[in-house]
Amino acid sequence: MSEHFREVAENAIGPFPGNCAGYGNPPSSGWGYVAALKLSIGTVAADMDEGLEGIVSYDRAECEDAYIGQINMITVSSFCGVNGAVWGYDLARADDLAQGRVAAKMVLPRHDGAEVPVLPMEPLLDAAYRLFGSRHERRFAPLPGAMVVCANKSQTIRPKAETTIWCALALAIAEDRMTTANLFIEDASDTESTGEAPLEDIEANIAKSILRCGADQGVKYREIFIGTKTLRITPDMVGCALACVPYVALPPAAIPPGRSAGDLADMTLGEWEAALNLPPMEPYPGRYRR
Questions:
Q1: Which domains can be identified in the chain, with CATH numbers?
Q2: What residues are labeled active site?
Q3: 150 neighbors 128 (Cβ within 8 angstroms)
Q4: Residues paired with 232 in a beta bridge
């Protein structure tokens, strides 16, 4: 399987020396793409009009955590297929995943009776953060102004009373990566719209929806990753919660000297950073700490 993702990586190199390219931007090197996972929430003071407040809060959500600011986001559906690789999972594997340090949150039955572990997504969110960089510590962010296809969902609200806004993202890993696709589920809402609900219930329902989609398609998922992000906001604020998966081609500068893009399939995230001599970043701004 590593050989397959070596080939995907070799075919997922973009034309811009230090910036990721959106998948399909010419003249990328081939047919492959890399999916990176992002959850973030942006806020702005409610002192303009509804349209402008929505623009600024969404823009800030793009800038928070893993930086994907200044892009032309094109919404697409939610699959990472045979010609795709997940950053932090298939390429530059998150160290905690590589070392088996990630424990399941729950286990749910698949349509054929097999048990599917549901794991925290934070290692994969951290991996995207360390690929793109942050607003203040840029690494290999998408080229400013690039057309970037993304699986995404967002929720924007100026609440009537103090409210929690939230976004959630899930990734289901297909058992057969050579004939079936991984599935992303993005969700976003707020407690003013849907009522209070424990995050554990939201995550369990998302996992159930994935397993139902798998049963409908006849696809077996071997594991599921789920993450959420929440923020309490007040009526003088507008908040935008964004769950997003950009599909990109990597820049040549993201390939360590003397190595090929395919070597990323056999490296951990820490090994990749060390091979590029990248300076350490501030820790990922969430509950997860590596």
A1: 2-276 (3.50.20.10)
A2: 186
A3: no
A4: 164
